[in-house]
């Protein structure tokens, strides 16, 4: 719905497109819509995909380490990991040195899935979007820098 106060540019682009926070938010939603059919083949949600990629890069991490990388609290991450465990993709085990710590490992099936999603999904995403790896790297670096500045300001 347009109002007299809205300009033609506002109507064409969207009234909120001048807000960086909305750009990041709406881009995240667009990413999720694009990722969903790619990840459905593996039976993974986007957060589960991120756990699998993190474990593919370094297996046998603690729940705390995974949470730190993914910016998730353990009360959000634990149920997610339990679903991956129920699917046979990861195992959870108490740390022998400190029973309060839970370690997460990929199973053999999980290693296979993690390898597939770590290579196939990014390639399919890049093809669908049609931007170069250099453009992605530049965008990502800008977002990482922005995130770090926002974290320092909070």
TrEMBL record:
Any one GO CC term of the record: cytoplasm
Gene3D superfamilies: Winged helix-like DNA-binding domain superfamily/Winged helix DNA-binding domain
Molecular functions per Gene Ontology: DNA binding; DNA-binding transcription factor activity
HTH marR-type domain boundaries: 17-148
Native species: Sphingobium yanoikuyae ATCC 51230
GO BP term, example: response to stress
Protein name listed in UniProt: HTH marR-type domain-containing protein
Localization terms from the record: Cytoplasm
UniProt keywords, alphabetically: Cytoplasm, DNA-binding, Transcription, Transcription regulation
SUPFAM superfamilies: Winged helix' DNA-binding domain
Chief location: cytoplasm
């Amino acid at each position: 719905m347009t109002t007299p106060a809205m300009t033609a540019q506002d109507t064409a682009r969207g009234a909120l497109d001048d807000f960086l926070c909305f750009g990041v938010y709406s881009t995240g939603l667009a990413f999720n819509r694009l990722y969903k059919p790619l990840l459905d083949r593996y039976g993974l949600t986007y957060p589960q995909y991120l756990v699998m990629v993190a474990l593919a890069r370094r297996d046998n991490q603690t729940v705390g380490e995974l949470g730190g990388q993914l910016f998730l609290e353990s009360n959000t991450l634990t149920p997610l990991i339990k679903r991956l465990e129920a699917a046979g993709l990861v195992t959870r085990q108490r740390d022998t040195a400190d029973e309060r710590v839970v370690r997460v490992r990929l199973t053999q099936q999980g290693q296979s899935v993690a390898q597939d999603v770590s290579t196939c999904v990014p390639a399919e995403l890049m093809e669908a979007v049609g931007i170069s790896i250099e453009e992605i790297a530049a965008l990502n670096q800008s977002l990482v820098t922005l995130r770090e500045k926002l974290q320092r300001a909070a």
